[in-house]
Write a structure and sequence with these properties.
Blueprint lengths: L12 H26 L3 H18 L6 E3 L2 H11 L4 H24 L11 H18 L1 H5 L8 H10 L6 H17 L8 H16 L28 H25 L10 H17 L6 E3 H9 L6 H17 L8 H15 L2 H12 L1
Antiparallel strand pairs: 1-2
């Protein structure tokens, strides 16, 4: 296994700080959206970015890997949190994230990273396409303001079609405006900040226009800018959460394998997948003790870091520090973000995840 060092070189600081700033800015809307997807307070997503992301960044073999909140992992977390009372939520979340980290650590110690090479392209394509469709369907309610009582995302989508007359038009217009802004901004030099700018502009417009029917994050959650707090796992929850934790851990590792196999380190060598397992495990274990959601290797976040000029793993560390400052200064303003705008962000992310070229390739192979 390749030796991993901290790789700190003063000459890289300016570029790594610049890349870290970009990552931190993009992580703000991503964190809010991820928390909504997981069904928890955005504070827990913020904790992950302040602890899990920089800690994992220090220990992965991949110099550039950005360990962040991913939609696939958050959907799985959301499934675990269904039916959990507000009083138990923190204990469940802390225990779940620590278990995810410990399982990833175990796989790393056993040097099982190479197993990810045996996952077929067809399986990966089907998995991520299914996740994308689920994300899109899950956000239609927040986008339109229609609260369906049907069970399951598909059933709720069908119920929405049967009750189009109950759509809250201010909510739908807010969501559509957000999508339009994102599509316009990604075509400009402001592309890295398209998501946060779209959220800010539409949320400000909702406030100025006095659209009281549009739900805000503050209507569902109390947000405050604060440092992560230490918490201990509930050992009594381990038997119940062990299998879900293993599933979430594997999702994160599979996604990270896409980074390891596609983005080489500065020396041209490809990262050691088993060491990446270890890094993610350490990051998630730390995030769990500080009330964070589980993080995993993000191909999109890693690509953004590289394109923003990152020179080493320290871009992720600086991103965590900058994110912490932003949360302390502006965390309470998250309550003013419009929920339809977050739904729109997630729908755009879901659509971008659907890789039509890969689906066509798999179809040709299966049919041929």
């Amino acid at each position: 296994m390749a030796k991993v060092t901290l790789d700190f070189e003063p000459k890289n600081i300016p570029k790594d700080v610049g890349a870290g700033l970009t990552l931190a800015m993009v992580a703000i809307p991503d964190s809010i959206a991820s928390a909504i997807l997981a069904g928890v307070n955005p504070i827990y997503a913020f904790n992950s970015m302040m602890v899990g992301m920089p800690v994992a960044g220090l220990f992965t073999s991949s110099q550039f890997m950005n360990c962040a909140l991913t939609s696939a992992m958050m959907l799985a977390v959301g499934g675990v949190m269904v039916g959990v009372s507000a009083a138990e939520q923190v204990s469940v979340l802390v225990t779940l994230t620590i278990l995810v980290g410990l399982f990833q650590l175990l796989l790393g110690v056993l040097k099982l990273g190479n197993l990810t090479r045996f996952i077929s392209n067809a399986v990966m394509t089907g998995f991520f396409t299914g996740i994308a469709i689920t994300i899109i369907l899950s956000q239609l309610g927040d986008l339109t303001g229609y609260e369906s009582e049907a069970g399951g995302h598909l059933a709720r989508a069908a119920d929405l079609l049967l009750h189009l007359n109950e759509i809250q038009w201010p909510s739908l217009l807010t969501g559509v405006a957000t999508i339009v802004l994102i599509l316009l901004l990604v075509r400009t030099r402001l592309r890295p900040y398209a998501l946060i700018l779209a959220l800010l502009l539409t949320s400000v417009a909702v406030s100025l226009l006095g659209a009281e029917s549009v739900h805000l994050v503050g209507d569902s959650y109390d947000i405050s800018g604060a440092l992560p707090r230490l918490a201990l796992p509930a050992l009594s929850l381990v038997p119940k959460l062990l299998l879900p934790a293993i599933a979430i851990a594997l999702i994160g590792l599979i996604q990270a394998a896409g980074v390891s196999q596609n983005i080489p380190n500065p020396d041209g060598e490809y990262p050691d997948a088993s060491r990446d397992f270890l890094g993610q495990g350490i990051g998630n274990t730390a995030a769990g003790f500080f009330q964070g959601l589980p993080v995993g290797g993000s191909l999109a976040g890693t690509a953004l870091s590289v394109s923003s000029g990152a020179m080493s793993r320290w871009a992720n560390v600086f991103a965590g520090l900058i994110f912490l400052v932003l949360v302390l200064l502006f965390g309470n303003l998250v309550e003013l973000v419009a929920e339809p705008a977050i739904a729109a962000l997630l729908i755009v992310a879901g659509l971008e995840t659907i890789n039509r070229a890969r689906i066509a390739d798999v179809w040709d192979v299966c049919v041929g």
